[in-house]
Specification:
Strand order of the largest sheet: 1-2-13-4-9-10-11
Number of strands: 13
Number of helices: 8
Order of helices and strands: HHHHHHHHEEEEEEEEEEEEE
Structural class: alpha+beta
Radius of gyration: 24 Å
Length: about 325
């Protein structure tokens, strides 16, 4: 079985040069660990980079910081690969001197046991403190994009005939009866989608959608020229930047290669932020202040519209509406 250092090296070998530069940059920062000096990393080969990580953070720390940075540079495929190939490392001394350790454990005094317990409590508190700092940073980041909140309403002229909109055009759900509506070139014909009335062709904007109680939904933005009459593929290539829920617990970002999102808890409210000039579309879990996913380096050349699909009601199991929410700036 490969050692942890071998697994880390294999992962770094999968990074392109530009990705490796970003990886090293994050290693220089204080990511909850001591940063590695830039001078040591600047010309370090991949093997040396692994050695520096293990020397600085020990094997458990090197594994944790590698997973953390891979998430930051959006290589979730390598995160899964590393997690699968590298179980939590064990102290090699424990493996080499197992029999002696067992004997030592028998002789351990009550004082040592208390010290061990105290250390566990200290580690737990440190972990909680780190989580709190991460939450506070996420909350600050979320508040910074919420400053660009816009008033979004649903456009009934684009709504599929099975979709029912509320009077204030802030809610949408799927109905069993197909409504008889006049032909409109803007209306979705085959897919149960609806666009926002408001379009954006510059600047930054943000909106939030309540998805509570649903087993399937899609939220994001789309270009004006998307196909509205036939079956569609939700991908940036086809003019869609979206995340969705399927089967009650499967969250994906619909990038060119779909990315499975790992969440701490069921999403209740989704935030969508767009920076048109930067070509950025980011999604947030509003309750936890976590950034779910970001589409970067997008080339926007036409109007963007907020995009919504409550999906079919699935015999009543998915009857809850999507709700465009006012932004609470006091949280």
């Amino acid at each position: 079985m490969a050692t942890l250092k071998e697994n880390l090296l294999r992962i770094l070998e999968k990074l392109k040069e530009e990705e490796l530069k970003k990886f090293k940059w994050f290693l220089e920062q204080d990511e909850g660990f001591s940063g590695i000096p830039a001078a040591q990393l600047e010309k370090a080969e991949r093997e040396t980079t692994v050695d520096l990580m293990v020397q600085t953070h020990q094997e458990p720390g090197a594994l944790k910081i590698t997973l953390k940075i891979l998430e930051k540079i959006r290589r979730n495929d390598l995160v899964q690969r590393l997690q699968t190939s590298s179980p939590e490392p064990t102290d090699p001394k424990t493996l080499s001197f197992g029999a002696q350790k067992e004997e030592d454990d028998k002789k351990k005094t009550k004082l040592e046991q208390l010290a061990s317990t105290a250390n566990r409590v200290l580690n737990l508190n440190t972990h909680d403190s780190g989580d709190q700092k991460k939450y506070e940073k996420g909350k600050a980041d979320l508040k910074s994009v919420q400053l660009f909140a816009v008033d979004v309403t649903l456009d009934p002229e684009t709504a599929h005939p099975h979709l029912i909109l509320s009077g204030d055009e802030k809610q949408v759900h799927h109905g069993d009866v197909r409504q008889r509506l006049p032909y409109n070139p803007k209306r979705f014909k085959k897919c149960v989608n609806v666009l926002g009335k408001q379009s954006f062709s510059s600047g930054r904007f943000y909106f939030e959608v309540q998805v509570k109680g649903k087993t399937a939904w899609t939220v994001g933005v789309a270009t004006e020229s998307i196909d509205r009459k036939e079956d569609i593929t939700l991908s940036p290539e086809d003019g869609f930047w979206t995340v969705w829920l399927r089967d009650g617990n499967k969250y994906d970002a619909n990038d060119e290669n779909p990315v499975c999102l790992s969440l701490k808890s069921q999403l209740q409210r989704v935030g969508v932020f767009v920076d048109y000039e930067k070509g950025l579309v980011s999604f947030y879990d509003v309750d936890t202040a976590d950034q779910l996913y970001s589409f970067t380096d997008c080339s926007f050349t036409e109007k963007l519209y907020p995009f919504f699909s409550p999906c079919t009601n699935d015999g009543g199991r998915n009857s809850a509406p999507l709700i465009i929410c006012p932004i609470n700036h006091n949280n």
